Amino acid sequence: MSPKEEPEKQWLITKKPVTVHTAPNATVVVQLQIGTIVKQLARSDAQEKNGDSQHDWYHIEMADGKQGWILGHLTMSFDPEEKANLYRQIAQAQPLSLSEQTELTDFLARATEEVQSPPEMAAELALLHLLSLRKSIDQFDWKAYPVISLDKTAEKPLPSDYKTWLKKQLQERHIYHDDVQSTAAGHSVWHLHAHLFWKLHDKYYPLPITDRIAWAGARNSVGGICYGYFECDLRNLEDTTMSYLKYHPTGKYVAEALEEMATVLDNIIDQNQVLFESKESLKWLRHFAVLRATVERTTHPKKAQVLGKIDKL
């Protein structure tokens, strides 16, 4: 295949594996990561079938100046002026394997640093990074690896690549190991720190995107187990659903938030959990007052139902 000279063009790697060859269908020299940008030097005359489609081979140059050939089946044309939109398209690609999800997470961490404007887009990319990070944790089959600590050996140790990636997230304080839930489950349970969502939310509030960010933060696990203690259930409610309603009383997810709040209150009422010493009653009455005031700010029809449950506490 003779290469065809064309005007300079750039390509963005959207999924894996995209391998660089010394020539079309020749020796592989390196595999490119999701989000890598390469410069096209030439294009082959003939296309090659991959799956049900025909694709070109591109002679490319990488950021380090090295050259090679890639098949263009997992790429998209890259325009620096549209990079934020292109990065978002990559983030929304589905489905992804676990290795693709972790690689996407790392790419979105870099993209978040790179794209600072417009603010709405910067906030969305940062949110997509956190959501991808959470997927990378949730997607792993923890039940197959009954290990409680990363530093302890086990009969079936974690895959080395994933363990390295996990340690990096731990060092950067993105995630934490839930000792209580891990002991109860018999295998590791990891969570994303909820404060990452709320820090992002506060940075961009009151942009419209913060409604999504707040709800993602409210849906993030708070960790631990309450074991029927109403104080614990109430604090968790305050840290999640109530925090969402506090900032977004007319937001998109108000109905779901009120429904979740009603479920928690029903559990407290049904189990007669509200039992405390008289010296603590004033403190908790204040909590109930804040709970009621938060719900009263909403305009959803479910408000009356939830207020009625609060009055039963």
Record keyword descriptors for this entry.
five-stranded antiparallel β-sheet; 17% strand; 313 residues; SH3 type barrels; two-stranded antiparallel sheet; 3 domains
Strand content: 15-25%
Structural class: alpha+beta
Q: How many strands?
A: 11
Helix content bin: 40-55%
Radius of gyration: 25 Å
Give the overall silhouette: elongated
Overall pLDDT, averaged? 91
Sequence of strands across the biggest β-sheet = 8-7-4-1-9
Low-confidence stretches: none
How would you characterize the largest beta sheet? 5 strands, antiparallel
User: What order do the SSEs take from the amino end to the carboxyl end, as H and E?
Assistant: EEEEEEEEEHHHHEHEHHHHHHH
Structure description:
The protein is of the alpha+beta class and 313 residues long. The chain has three domains: 3-78, SH3 type barrels (Roll); 81-221, no CATH class; 226-313, no CATH class. 47% of the residues lie in helices and 17% in strands. The protein contains twelve helices and eleven strands. It has helices spanning 83-91, 98-114, 119-138, 160-171, 179-185, 195-204, 209-219, 230-239, 241-247, 254-270, 278-296, 303-311, and strands at 3-13, 18-21, 28-32, 37-44, 48-50, 53-55, 57-61, 67-71, 75-77, 175-177, 190-192. It has a five-stranded antiparallel β-sheet with strand order 8-7-4-1-9, with no helix packed on it. Strand 7 (57-61) and strand 8 (67-71) form a beta hairpin. The model has no long low-confidence stretch (mean pLDDT 91).
